[in-house]
Specification:
2 domains, 51% helix, five-stranded parallel sheet, 10 helices, alpha/beta, three-stranded parallel sheet, 8 strands, globular, TIM Barrel, binds zinc ion
Length: 244
Amino acid sequence: MKKILTGLLCLIFVGLLLVLGLNLKASAVKDRYHYETTGEIMWEIKTNEKVVALTFDDGPHPKHTAEILDILSNYNAKATFFVVGENAEKNSDLILREYNEGHEIANHTYTHPLKTTLANLEKELKQTDELIYSITGTYPELFRPVEGQYTDQMIQSVVKKGYKVVMWSWHQDTEDWKNPGVHRIVRTVLKGVKPGNIILFHDGGGNRRQTVQALEKIIPELKKQGYEFVTVSELRKMKDADPK
Ligand SMILES: [Zn+2]
């Protein structure tokens, strides 16, 4: 009797595990391989051209974004700014400057919520889109989720609205928002840089003095190595043109 009971309990336990496992599988977020294959999310591209995309999140910041724009302009480098709508509203002059100097402006929500509903995300994206349009006369095409966190449902929704979702090269996360020191930011970028990389910096969300100082070293060094700095949409076109 005892044996039968133990056997039954074992069966129930295995059954539960199976059900749990299947559920987890059903709700799992599709991975990078899936989304790179569909082309709905981009992390980087493979190319033989010596190009990289510098990207800046969470701005504009009245002081640091202006400083970054000065450096970019000195080296004729183009970048992509994933702006937060409420910062863009307060610093519309900097949005216009980014646009006039040939940089790409992309959507990074309106209030930068770490957790929100899909309905609110859609509302925030639209709010930021309309704001950018009112300043530059063009709508952003790219969206980067807050902290790079996404769900399949979110991707389906934003893709349907016409956005391209952009992450960053995993080895090019400078973590500059932690203020790790100028040297560390420079080293993160230079040690593993490859053609087609998307490099992640922040121009807003705090004191970005280290980011500014790191860029003063990174840009001339990469230029010396023969790199050009293109926008994410330019990089995307290079991927589409590449038969590989
Ligand atoms: Zn952000």
